[in-house]
Amino acid sequence: VFGVDGPTPDFNSNVERFLAIGSMLNLALMLFNLLPVPPLDGSRILSTFFPGLRRPFMTEQGAVIALIAFVVVFRFVGTWVFDAASRGSGFAIALAARLFGVELSGA
């Protein structure tokens, strides 16, 4: 892994891949959690500004509707969230590399 001249290119590529996947997953989970669907934090944030939005989901029927909404949002919005997270993490890694003077391998 480490040669006389420092880390090998494979090691650097693996570290870049690890950082890219880790940052992409973190951004995806953050974006998904901010969606205004009742089990997620986004609905709690929205209900802070509009308290009437919380009441319908406090019943048993409302919990079923919230679950259905969650599944529908996850199914149709999940792809958009992961695409946005992938682009955002790529930008963040490129920016960090530029700030710290690190050359990325591009793999």
Describe this structure in words.
- The chain has 107 residues and is mainly alpha-helical.
- The protein contains three helices and two strands, in the order E-E-H-H-H.
- It has helices at 9-33, 41-49, 60-100; strands at 2-3, 6-7.
- Helix 1 (9-33) packs antiparallel against helix 3 (60-100).
- The longest helix is centred in the last third of the chain and has 41 residues, at 60-100.
Structure, briefly:
The chain has 107 residues and is mainly alpha-helical. It has helices at 9-33, 41-49, 60-100; strands at residues 2-3, 6-7.
Structural key phrases:
two-stranded antiparallel ribbon, 107 residues, 3 helices, mainly alpha
From the helix content, strand content and strand pairing, which structural class follows? mainly alpha
Question: Looking at the chains present, what oligomeric state does this protein adopt?
Answer: single chain
Uncertain regions: pLDDT < 50 for 5+ in a row?
none
The number of helical elements comes to 3
Measured by DSSP, the beta-strand proportion falls in: under 5%
Through-space gap between termini:
18 Å
H-E string: EEHHH
> Nearest-angstrom radius of gyration?
20 Å
Strand order of the largest sheet: 1-2
Number of strands: 2
Average the pLDDT over all residues and give the rounded result.
82
Overall geometric form: elongated
Helix proportion: over 70%
Largest sheet: 2 strands, antiparallel
